[in-house]
From TrEMBL:
<dbReference type="InterPro" id="IPR006860">
    <property type="entry name" value="FecR"/>
</dbReference>
<feature type="domain" description="FecR protein">
    <location>
        <begin position="128"/>
        <end position="219"/>
    </location>
</feature>
<feature type="domain" description="Protein FecR C-terminal">
    <location>
        <begin position="261"/>
        <end position="327"/>
    </location>
</feature>
<dbReference type="GO" id="GO:0016989">
    <property type="term" value="F:sigma factor antagonist activity"/>
</dbReference>
<dbReference type="Pfam" id="PF04773">
    <property type="entry name" value="FecR"/>
</dbReference>
<protein>
    <submittedName>
        <fullName>Ferric-dicitrate binding protein FerR (Iron transport regulator)</fullName>
    </submittedName>
</protein>
<dbReference type="InterPro" id="IPR032508">
    <property type="entry name" value="FecR_C"/>
</dbReference>
<dbReference type="InterPro" id="IPR012373">
    <property type="entry name" value="Ferrdict_sens_TM"/>
</dbReference>
<dbReference type="Pfam" id="PF16344">
    <property type="entry name" value="FecR_C"/>
</dbReference>
<dbReference type="InterPro" id="IPR041916">
    <property type="entry name" value="Anti_sigma_zinc_sf"/>
</dbReference>
Length: 334
């Protein structure tokens, strides 16, 4: 029995790449339990997947559409040639970080739920913290928060009373439940973000705080200045507690949550920076002559290997792995 008769190649690809949801993982495991042939099929698919990420010699002229086609053809060709063999699964480093942090996350969520569901003293607070992982959390008021890695969200002891106040260190995307009687307030490294109900991203790993709004209206303030941001607007703090509105909203900054990257004649140095933050991977360029190569492409919930393979095919580059680092190298695009 082949995998295609009962499970999609897309789901198997994301399972091998380590980007499946818990429900999808359960679906694959149930499929594996149906027959020993399925384990062999999955092992063969993993060999095909790994083989497909090995980029060959540069072509003379390749665009993004041709690069996608070439990567897909390699997967199909290898699928017909590789003999079935049971191999251990090797998931991406992004998934490995999530597994490594699972115990911490489970314990943290259990404690957080207990603190928010039972009476607490005014002096006490509730904390959600991430390390080498991301985490989505629903607050008691119905607000959804998606924390990036190395971030901490602290809720005030009187949360859900007159105001809904939290403190953020790191980065998080907020989808705030609207409540006109209780404003939602985020304190982040000397700044304040105040809303009634909207969606936005706050990046506050240091004193350079950035706010990007995807819906509704946000009030962003420092001790010296206050600005109002609406949908598709962004701003950041600068010297002397001032706020500067940015020329355009960069949705790639939120790819750690969406796993969607959109590049429009973007310098390769900026592409690599976006991928590094979005995939939490150490990606570098082999030389400075590659920095100004331009890329126009869209990647939506693709694995890191697939994304890098398409970029390499498009710009005639090689993907070189050195330990935990990934290098994009080649002769350049001049």
């Amino acid at each position: 029995m082949s995998a295609n008769e009962s499970i999609s190649d897309d789901l198997l690809a994301r399972y091998v790449a380590g980007t499946t949801t818990p429900d999808e993982q359960a679906q694959v495991k149930a499929w594996l339990a149906q027959s020993t042939d399925h384990a062999q099929e999955l092992a063969r698919f993993e060999r095909v997947w790994e083989a497909s990420t090995q980029v060959g010699p540069p072509a003379m002229e390749v665009d993004v559409e041709a690069a996608w086609s070439k990567v897909n053809k390699r997967i199909a060709a290898k699928n017909e040639q590789v003999e079935p063999k049971v191999l251990p699964l090797r998931k991406s480093s992004f998934a490995a970080w999530r597994v490594a942090a699972s115990v911490l996350v489970v314990l943290g969520l259990g404690w957080l739920g207990y603190r928010w569901m039972t009476p607490i003293e005014k002096a006490e607070i509730a904390v959600v913290k991430t390390q080498k992982n991301t985490l989505e959390q629903t607050l008691p008021d119905g607000t959804k928060v998606f924390l990036n890695e190395n971030s901490t969200l602290t809720a005030a002891a009187d949360f859900n009373e007159e105001t809904r106040t939290v403190t953020l260190k790191g980065e998080a995307y907020f989808d705030v439940k609207r409540d006109e009687t209780r404003p939602f307030i985020i304190n982040a490294n000397g700044t304040e973000v105040r809303v009634l109900g909207t969606s936005f991203n706050v990046k506050a790993y240091d004193n350079h705080v950035r706010v990007a709004v995807t819906s509704g209206k946000v009030q962003f303030s420092t001790p010296k200045q206050k600005v109002v941001l609406v949908k598709d607007e962004a701003a950041a703090t600068s010297e002397a507690d001032t706020i500067i509105k940015l020329p355009a909203l960069n949705f790639n900054e939120m790819a750690y949550r969406t796993r969607v990257f959109v590049f429009e004649k973007t310098n390769l140095s900026d592409v690599v920076a976006s991928l590094r933050e979005g995939y939490h991977a150490d990606i570098r360029l082999g030389s400075r002559r590659l920095e100004n190569c331009l890329l126009t492409a869209r990647f939506e919930k693709e694995s890191l290997d697939t994304t890098l393979s398409v970029i390499a095919e498009t710009l005639n580059l090689r993907v070189v792995r050195r330990g935990n680092s990934i290098l994009l190298d080649g002769s350049g695009c001049e």
